[in-house]
């Protein structure tokens, strides 16, 4: 993980939902596979994302811009013959702009 700009907002926890813009590319060829910088921010619980994405965000501050490198084993797993996800076996790179974080309501 590389901090491109550190935010001054609250610290993100593993239980938070995050609001962010992101761009995901395959490390092997630089091809974009997902992103939302040209649309509304994504909003999802950190418990519902790949392990490497969550590890890259927990402990960071809202308002930060991050570059997160995620090896395949912390993304969609190592390559197997039965894998159906095209990102299985791929190392990934995410550019993330953290816009907000909210804790779940009880």
TrEMBL record:
Domain PPIase FKBP-type residue range list: 15-102
Reaction(s) catalysed by this chain's protein: [protein]-peptidylproline (omega=180) = [protein]-peptidylproline (omega=0)
Keywords for this protein: Isomerase, Rotamase
Gene Ontology molecular function terms on file: peptidyl-prolyl cis-trans isomerase activity
Pfam annotation, one family: FKBP_C
Enzyme type, top EC level: isomerase
The EC number(s) this enzyme carries: 5.2.1.8
Name used for this protein in its record: peptidylprolyl isomerase
Organism this protein belongs to: freshwater metagenome
């Amino acid at each position: 993980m590389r901090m491109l700009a550190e935010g001054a907002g609250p610290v993100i926890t593993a239980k938070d939902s995050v609001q962010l813009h992101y761009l995901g590319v395959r490390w092997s060829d630089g091809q974009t596979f997902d992103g939302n910088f040209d649309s509304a921010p994504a909003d999802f619980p950190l418990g519902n994302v790949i392990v490497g994405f969550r590890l890259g965000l927990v402990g960071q501050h809202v308002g930060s811009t991050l570059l997160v490198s995620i090896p395949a084993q912390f993304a969609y797993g190592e390559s197997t013959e039965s894998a159906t996800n095209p990102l299985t076996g791929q190392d990934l790179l995410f550019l993330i702009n953290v816009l907000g974080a909210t804790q779940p309501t009880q």
